[in-house]
Write a structure and sequence with these properties.
The complex is a heterodimer of chains A (145) and B (131).
Chain A: H1 7-10, E1 14-21, H2 24-34, H3 48-56, H4 61-67, E2 77-85, E3 94-109, E4 113-126, E5 129-141
Chain B: E1 6-12, H1 17-27, H2 37-42, H3 53-65, E2 69-77, E3 87-99, E4 102-113, E5 118-128
Antiparallel strand pairs in B: 1-3, 2-5, 3-4, 4-5
The chains are: A alpha+beta (145), B alpha+beta (131).
């Protein structure tokens, strides 16, 4: 591994993205593990705003960590989740998913040592525009620089 | 609903392994820390599986969904939830206002383990009825 890339090289980087379809069986499976009552007909559980973003961004976590010059062995952690649910997501409908790295901040904690905070924005959209917008920060511990 | 109204506490039963497998399938993310106790031991994470973060968010959303429709949820992830943990979701209404043609409540929200450790903390905006 060549070490962390520069913020300039990552911010603005588009991830592959893709298409999201939430199957009714997926919605039923999620509601089953959360003990959730069925929603209005055809409406997916709001947590699919997050799940769908992760599924549709077109790169798995190992690939994302590698892009950031890190690996799962470094102990990456979820930072902050900001989920903006503009309209209900529907089951059975195809959505376009676009994902961009929008932030990369280098920090150093007295106890934690150096770490980077990388922020992703993932939009789930239909023909009328974004339905759900997720901003997710990931904390990447770094060995002493 | 008015500022100061309390949401919950809403207890969540013991965290089990089977839902972790379902969430891993839904996320298309076969991370072994959610699936394989030998992997958690090997990685120094102890003998219990690590609950996927979205399940923790989902339990908080369940409590919020009984109050109103979630418009926005902002959360800091503060701790790790493991197999066998018991959780409690809660919150408090901080303000109520009209926005985007509907009545909305802004709430401070959290998810704690039953030993009091805070695992998720943040803010939810909910669309609520007029009463």
């Amino acid at each position: 591994m060549n070490g962390p890339p520069s913020p300039e090289s990552l911010v603005g980087r588009r991830l592959p993205g893709g298409t999201l379809v939430i199957a009714p069986t997926d919605d039923a499976a999620l509601r089953g593990i959360l003990g959730s009552a069925a929603g209005p007909a055809g409406e997916a559980h709001p947590l699919f705003g997050f799940i769908g973003a992760m599924r549709g961004m077109g790169i798995d976590w190992h690939g994302f960590f590698a892009l950031c010059g890190a690996s799962a062995d470094d102990g990456p952690m979820m930072g902050e989740t900001d989920l903006d649910l503009r309209r209900p997501l529907a089951t059975g409908q195809a959505y376009a998913v676009t994902a961009t790295i929008v932030g990369f901040v280098r920090k150093e904690g007295r106890r934690t040592g150096p770490f980077d905070v990388v922020t992703l924005q993932v939009d789930i959209a239909d023909e009328s525009g974004p339905v759900a917008v997720l901003r997710q920060s990931i904390i990447l511990p770094r060995a002493a620089r | 609903m008015k500022p100061g109204d309390v949401l919950g506490p809403s207890p969540v039963g013991s965290i089990e392994a089977a839902p972790m497998r379902v969430m891993s399938d839904l996320l298309r993310d076969p991370n072994p820390i959610h699936l394989d106790r030998a992997a958690t031991r090997r990685l120094g994470l102890g003998d219990r599986l690590v609950n996927p973060g979205p399940i923790n968010m989902g339990h908080l959303m369940e409590m919020l969904g009984r109050v109103g429709a979630i418009r926005r949820l902002t959360l800091r992830h503060l701790g790790t939830v493991r197999e066998g943990d018991r959780l409690v979701a809660g919150g408090i209404v901080r303000s109520v206002e009209d926005a985007a043609g509907e009545r909305r409540a802004t709430c401070e929200v959290w998810l704690d383990r039953d030993d009091g450790e805070r695992l998720l903390a943040g803010t939810a905006v909910l669309a609520i009825g007029d009463d």
